[in-house]
Task: structure prediction
Amino acid sequence: MNVSYYIEGLLRQMTAQLARDYLGIVGPAGTMGIEGGFFRFNQSNSAADPGKGKVSLDAGTWAATTAIYFDILTENDVDATSFLKLVDSGDVLLIQDRDDATSYGRFMVNGPPVDNGGWFTIPVAHVKSGGNVPKNNAQIAVVVSYT
Result:
């Protein structure tokens, strides 16, 4: 998870809460925002912990993917448990190869994340993709757009 995005999001939420509490200002409801981080890709399609700092799919192609498996740690050893627990049905999840912008998969989350103790399963439906899935151990960016 990119810590600066996380802190920026928290600051926006705190500022909005202070405005509501002390100024009585209530604005229109908006989207929750986006968060993300860097992981490594594991080409295994097993429903298992993908390994420290890694993410894997349940299929060998973007289009056939119905579940994504996340280790609770990012590539940089940041505990992403809270980030993963916040993912919900209707959110959009994007995975992109860091070194190849043509290699990406965009998915709609279609169920709650499952905490498997040290790793998560997130059920998804394929929306759009380009290129092939990343090579094993490639650095990937993961972004979630919360609804």
In short: The first strand starts at residue 33 and ends at 41. Strands lie at 33-41, 54-57, 67-71, 92-97, 100-109, 114-115, 119-130, 139-146.
